[in-house]
Specification:
about 200 residues, Alpha-lytic protease prodomain-like, Cation_efflux_TM, Cation_efflux_TMD_sf, Cobalt transporter, CDF/SLC30A
């Protein structure tokens, strides 16, 4: 009876891990494609917010890759992976801040139409990722930190669309700069939260 129970639990755990792996591979592919799309569009349109969001997509792709690596490993490995995610979020914040500082001195106004079109596509892509990840957000710290990354993407995409609208109305680069600096703050705060959670998990492990 006990052996059957253990076997059943092991089968259920393996099934859950396969589901998690499938979801992570899907969102990894989506974010990798969107990183290239947004980066090229951000450079072409001189948009800080699009460029910043593309870096976020790259960071997320790395995050999902590390999550796949530790999906069959223990709590300690998953906590280390979450710590890496926190570091990637922080580096994204630094990169966006650096780009914002450059844009401020360059003074070029971004192309609102390109920002709107690509920002909308990115929003749809990230809504799909969030939907796929929500089911597994409470499975463990690995999936919890991944879900938080995806939630940040929705905030970033919405901000990009808002900035595009304001750029179009005002013909000014300031809305794009403001959103860029706001993304820096969001990334930095999320980084602190993930690092704190993963550090506690490491201490317990």
């Amino acid at each position: 009876m006990g052996d059957n129970c253990c076997q059943k639990k092991a089968c259920e755990l393996e099934k859950l891990r396969k589901q998690q792996s499938k979801v992570l591979w899907t969102v990894l592919l989506i974010n990798s494609v969107m990183f290239v799309v947004e980066l090229l569009a951000g450079i072409k349109s001189a948009s800080l917010s699009l460029t910043g969001d593309s870096l976020d997509m790259l960071g997320d792709a790395l995050v999902y890759g590390s999550s796949l690596y530790v999906i069959h490993k223990g709590r300690k490995a998953q906590a280390k992976s979450a710590l890496l995610k926190g570091a990637i979020m922080f580096l994204s914040a630094v990169a966006v801040f650096a780009r914002a500082s450059y844009q401020l001195f360059a003074g070029s106004t971004p192309e609102a139409r390109v920002m709107s079109a690509v920002g909308f596509i990115a929003l749809l892509a990230n809504l799909l990722c969030l939907f796929l990840l929500t089911k597994h957000r409470n499975d463990n710290i690995n999936l919890s930190s991944v879900w938080l990354c995806s939630r940040n993407d929705i905030i970033a995409n919405t901000s990009v669309l808002g900035a595009a609208g304001l750029v179009f109305l005002t013909n000014s680069l300031l809305p794009d700069l403001i959103v860029g600096f706001m993304l820096t703050i969001v990334f930095a705060k999320s980084s602190g939260k993930v690092v704190s959670q993963s550090w506690r998990e490491l201490q317990q492990a």
